[in-house]
Structure formats: C-alpha cells, structure tokens
Write a structure and sequence with these properties.
- InterPro entries: HypE (IPR011854), PurM-like_C_dom (IPR010918), PurM-like_C_sf (IPR036676), PurM-like_N (IPR016188), PurM-like_N_sf (IPR036921).
- It comes from Geoglobus ahangari.
- One of its GO terms (biological process) is protein maturation.
- This is Hydrogenase expression/formation protein HypE.
- The chain has 343 residues and is of the alpha+beta class.
- The protein folds into 2 domains: 120 residues, 2-Layer Sandwich (60s Ribosomal Protein L30, Chain: A); 188 residues, Phosphoribosyl-aminoimidazole Synthetase, Chain A, domain 2, CATH 3.90.650.
- It is built from 9 helices and 14 strands.
- A 7-stranded mixed β-sheet has the order 9-11-8-12-10-13-14. A 5-stranded mixed β-sheet has the order 1-2-7-5-6, with helices on one face. Strands 3-4 form a two-stranded antiparallel ribbon.
- Helix 2 packs parallel to helix 3.
- The protein is globular and about 55 Å long.
- The relative contact order is 0.18.
C-alpha cells in the first residue's frame, strides 16, 4: 500500500523512490542521473530540465496561490542548479464546477511571476474532471547556462577540484559554510493557519518567491558549492540530503537558524519543528569557507535575515545541531509530512 509519507519528502519518500522507481528506471542524458535525485537534470551542456506537480490546498492562501507555487517552485528547482530559468510548460487538472474567480486569480499569479522572472510558458495542457480534485498543476522547466554560473565555477575551482558542470547538491567539502537565505517555516505555517482557525495572532504569509535573483548575485561573487531549495521536508531534509550525498557532516548552530520568534512560538505550541516545515522562497547553500562572508553580504541585500548557520566537517557524517544551551543532538531525516498538500 502506498502511503502519504511516500510522497512527502524525507526518509520514506527516498526509500520509496529507490525501491519502486529507480529499480526500474535510472537513466541519464548528461552528468546527472534520475537516481541522483537532484532538483533538475541536464540533457545538454547548456540546459537543465525539471518537472513538478502542485496539489496545494487551499489553492489561494496567505501570500500566494498554487499559481505562484507552480511558477516560482519550478524556477527555483532550476536556479539551485545555477541555471537561469527560461522556459516552462503548464498543465492543469481542474475539477468541474471550480470557481471561475479563483481560477482567474491563479492564472494572474502565473502571468505575474513568469513575467517577473523572465520565464516563458511555451506549452501546456488542460483537463476538466469530475472527481473531487479542486485544481492540480503540473509544470516542467528548462534552465540555461549563464555568465554568473561560469564565474561561480571559476572562482570555486581556485580553491578545489570541482568536477561538476552545474552546482550540485553533492558538492560540499569539509570547511564549507552553510547558509540559509532567509527566515524559515513561513510557507508551511501560513498554509496551516489558512486551513484551520487555531486562534493564533500571528501575521505570517507564505514566502513563495523566485530565488534566482539572489542565487545569481551569490554566483557573481563566486564560491557556491552546493544548493537545495528546502520545500517538502524543510531545512532538515535539505541538510541531510546534501550531507549524505557529499559524504560530509554538517554542524549547525541552533541560535543562528533564521526563524521569526512568533513563527517559532506557534510551531512550539503546536508541536511542530520549523526545520521540517516547507519553504517556497529560500535556499540552503554551501559556500567555500573563505568566500562565505562575501556571499552572505550580497544575499542580505535580498533578505536581511540570511545567515551562516554552520559548517561542514569530516569529523562525522550526520547533521548535528549545537543547541542554545551548548549540548548537541543529531538532526534526523524527516519521516512524516507535518502539513500535507502545501506544495
């Protein structure tokens, strides 16, 4: 039986993919294979390709809509490879009787974000169904090589042998700084509060936005070795995946993790860990240690809450958190989805 956890990010989804899909399908068109589980894969020296499906409920929420998620999320999967988002497809599955006003708002968001990012929607498909679906959105995207990526790789290779043509989530080495580009957990919490009247007085909206412009600026400085956008499974998922693939450990300082006090307070009250909650406009970024402060400085021009949260190490292979009281604990892979259907 297929469980909800099998598609929620984290440990169980990784096991599901390896057992049910990669055992049957594992091909490559460039340096990145299907089983590498990167955010995108290359099919040419100049291009990367990604696809994603969005099932967010409700389809319009604080700070955005499923249309915002589709365009920004797909663009972000390209951007964290170092690719400039360029082209997209858009496929819609719409329940018969779906509200026209809601649909118009979703499409307005698609137009707004595609124009702002500079990505062209060039093909698509639409189906109307009788089932209780609401609206599902599927997108694919193509990203292209660019001068910022080339500069980043050139700077990074002044410090190490970096064998990849793109920024890979397995590119960390001991001594790299780990940066989170802004406050976390806001998308997941905003979606939860949109659904439930929980009585909390907290002004929080989804962080859905394109990360390309911040990523481009960071690469223009150079030294970015690995990137991941912490969507399903949150920062905990991204850190564990990057550490495991790179063969390094990551030591994180809890007090440096950027999370708003009111967001953390609501999460604590509900028994939720901000580190496992979905984000839709942030990046977990590895940076060559000597370049980290320069990269952080430019990232703070886009979000002043960006922070170096820790460093990689060869002393262990886990993700370890140094708590505010000075103890340490292992940060495990997430195993369940605390808030389903958020992206």
């Amino acid at each position: 039986m297929i469980r909800r956890e099998d598609g929620a990010g984290g440990k169980y989804m990784t096991e599901f993919l390896r057992k049910r899909i990669f055992s049957r399908l594992d091909s490559r068109a460039g340096e990145i294979s299907l089983s590498d589980m990167e955010d995108s894969a290359d099919f040419d020296e100049k291009y990367v390709f990604t696809t994603d499906s969005y099932t967010a409920f409700p389809p319009i929420f604080r700070g955005g809509s499923i249309g915002s998620l589709a365009v920004c999320g797909t663009s972000n999967d390209l951007a964290v490879m170092g690719a400039q988002p360029a082209y997209m497809s858009l496929a819609l599955i719409i329940q018969e009787g779906f509200d026209e006003g809601t649909f118009e708002r979703i499409m307005d968001d698609v137009r707004y974000w595609s124009e702002r990012i500079g990505v062209k929607v060039i093909t698509g498909d639409t189906k109307v169904v009788e089932m209780n679906a609401g609206i599902f959105v599927n997108t694919s995207g193509i990203g292209v090589r660019n001068e910022a990526l080339e500069n980043n790789l050139r700077v990074l290779r002044e410090y190490r042998d970096y064998p990849y043509r793109w920024v890979r989530d397995r590119g960390l080495k001991a001594g790299d700084a780990v940066i989170v580009t802004g406050n976390i957990a806001e998308h997941g919490l905003a979606m939860l509060l949109e659904r439930e009247d929980l009585g909390f007085e907290v002004d929080v909206e989804s962080d859905v936005q394109p990360v390309w412009f911040a990523v481009k600026a960071a690469m223009e400085v150079g030294g970015v070795s690995a990137m991941k956008d912490p969507t399903r499974g949150g920062v905990a998922e991204a850190l564990n995946e990057m550490a495991e693939k790179s063969g390094v450990g990551i030591l994180v300082e809890e007090e440096r993790i950027p999370v708003r006090d009111d967001v953390k307070g609501v999460c604590d009250a509900l028994g939720l860990d901000p580190l496992t909650m979905a984000n839709e406009g942030k990046v977990v970024m590895g940076v060559e240690g000597e370049m980290a402060e320069d990269v952080l400085r430019v990232l703070r021009k886009f979000d002043e809450s960006a922070e170096i949260i820790g460093y990689t190490t060869d002393e262990f292979r886990e993700v370890v958190v140094k708590t505010r009281i000075g103890t340490t604990k292992i940060l495990p892979w997430p195993t369940i989805d605390p808030i389903p259907r958020v992206c």
